Amino acid sequence: MNKSIIHKLSPFNNYSDMPAALLAVKKLLAFFICYVLGMIAGNILIMGVVFAGGKDPTQGGAFSDSVMELLGLYGTAAIIAVSILYWKLTEKRKLSEMGVTRHIGDWFIGALIGIGLLFVCIAAIMLTGSIKFNGISKTPDITMLVLLLGGYAVQGAAEEFLCRGAVFNSLKDKVSLPAAIAVNTVAFTVPHMDMLSSSEPMYILSGTLCLVVISCVFSFLTLRTESIWAACGLHTIWNFCLSSVLGLDLSGSEGASTAVLKMSSVGENLLNGGKYGIEASIIADLVIAAAALMLWHMYKRNNTERKA
Predict the structure, then answer these.
(1) How far apart are CA 190 and CA 193, in angstroms?
(2) Which residue in 176, 295, 157, 178 sits closest to 236, CA to CA?
(3) How far apart are CA 203 and CA 167, in angstroms?
(4) 93: which of 34, 60, 280, 299 is 20 to 30 A away, CA to CA?
C-alpha cells in the first residue's frame, strides 16, 4: 500500500476526495479509534474514582455493584469527549454539523418515541405469555433510579455522538444515504456483538437484526430532526425503562435490582429473546422495523414537501 493510500485512509485528517468504499473504511477506522480511546479514558477515570474512594482496583478492590454500575455508565462521558475532539480537530467542522444543535428539546420527542416503542414491544410479547408481570416494587430506591436515568442519558448520548454524530453526519453528504446508514449501523452493531456472541445462533441472528433496525430508527430520527438529540432521548429511555423501570434484561445484562416493576421472562424463546432480553426477540424486531419504515416515510415526505 503506497503512502498516498495510507494518507487518504488515515482517520487523522479530513481528506474525503476518494471512492465511497474507501471513505467508508476511513470513517469506520475513525469510529473504532474514538471508541477504544473513549473506553480507555473512561476506565482510567473510573479507576481514579475507585482509588480516590480508598479502594485498589488493581487488587480487585471495588465499590458495591450498584455504584460500579453507575460509574460504568457515567464513565462513557469520555466517549462523548473523544467524539467532540475528533469532530473539532480532525473533521474541523461546527458541532451543529455533527447534530449537536440548540434544539435539545428534540431529546424529549425521542424519549416519547422510546416509551411508545417499548410499550408496544412489551405488550405484544406479554400477549404471547413469554413475559409476565409480577407486581410493583414496594421499596424502589428513588435516588438510585434518578442516578441511573442520568447515567443512561450519558451512555445513550455517548453512542449517538459517535455513531450518528461523528460517523453518520460526516458521511451522509459525501456518499449515498443508504451507504451512510449502513456504515453507521456497522459501527453501532459491532461493539454490541460481544454480549450477543455468547447466545445461541438463533438469538444472535435475531439480536443482530434488532441492532440493525434500531440503528435505522436512530438514523432516520437524526435525518428527520436534523440533530442527534432525538436519537439520544430514545436511546436513553429505552435502556433506562427496560432495565430500571421494568427490571428486564438489557442487552444480555440483568435488569436493575432497583426496578420499579417486577417483570420476568417466561422460559427462553425467540418471542422474549432468551437470556439476552427482548432485544433478541423477533417481536421486537418486527415492531422496531415497522417504526423504522414509518420514520423513513415521514422523512421522505417531509423532504419532498420542502423541495416542492
Answers:
(1) 5
(2) 157
(3) 27
(4) 299
pLDDT in tens, 182-241: 999 999 999 999 888 888 999 999 999 999 999 999 999 999 999 999 999 999 999 999
Which residues on adjacent β-strands are paired with residue 285? none
Amino acid identity of residue 41, one-letter, is: A
For residues 305 and 308, give the distance between their C-alpha atoms in angstroms, rounded to a whole number: 5
Residues 6+ apart with CB under 8 A from 4: none
* pTM beyond 0.85: yes
Residue whose C-alpha cell reads 414491544 in the numeric block: 121
- Grid cell digits, residue 37: 480511546
**Distance (Å, whole) CA 245 – CA 119:** 12
- E-strand stretches of 131-249: 131-136
Q: Kindly report the number of other CB atoms within 10 A of residue 178's CB atom.
A: 8
C-alpha cell at 49: 474514582
